[in-house]
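Tutorial handout. Part one gives the primary structure; part two gives the three-dimensional structure as tokens.
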Amino acid sequence: MGSSFSNDLPHLVVGGDSMVGAALAAALRQGGQTVHATTRRQESHGPDRPLLDLARPQDWPEAFPARYGAAHICAAVARLDDCFRDPHGTHAINVTNMVALARRLAADGTQVIFLSTNQVLDGSLPFPDETAAVVPSNVYGQQKAAAERALQDLAADMPEAVVTILRLSKVLPPHLPLFTDWADSLAQGRPIDAAVDMSLAPVPVSLVVDALRRLAGARLPGLFQLSSALEIDYAAAGYHLCRYLAADPVLVRPVRAVAAGYVLEQPPRHTIMDSGKLARAVGIQAPDPLAVLDDLFANLPPHP
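Part two.
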């Protein structure tokens, strides 16, 4: 268990314009907590929106507007292909500059909560726990693994620091353009291409936000993981959408991800992780993947 946490101290959300960051900031504010959510956009800058671009540490302010109880680092270059195309530039953002920011925050007594990914694992086996070997199979995973190691070293160097790492599988927003496009095609009797070799262990962004709030509230250090209770592939998600819409499943055309041009690097075989440690620590249960998809499908635009 970490040291005591004062709810009087505001939260810092680094990457307030990201999907998770925006949802987290909104939930914290709704819960009555003060939040400063960083932005890279000059037009969004304001008293509770500090300007911060991980690509430009030279422009960081000398001090943030306040001292923080917890800082949730949600900003990253997260597209696998972007990291593959520009490994040096994205490493500066995802590793070098992020760790420098985390060290500065930890030195002020702020709990650092870092969002990581299942991509740090090679995906050869399902349900790896937090003790599994870190063997990333793509550039993005390599960067996140390097960031994890640096943060663990930071925690070892600063015994009073509270450093929390939360690995996530695929996080789904309430609306996902992929499924909206699929639903439009199926409603018009057009086929959809869905990867049969891309694993999906989805968690809703609302559950991620809940986990982050609980980890901050308990001020828990350490490494945790969150994914769904089971995994499916994208083709199975397409068939499930057909059932939801009463569409003909023959419209789903299974394809290979690299051959279809969806990704540049072969995706890992498995993306599911063991979420038991998080459940035991803060009561967050791994969701059923089909139930996650059903909730998302319920937000699809109506079709005639």
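Part three, for discussion. Residues 87-107 form the longest helix (21 residues). The longest strand covers residues 111-117.
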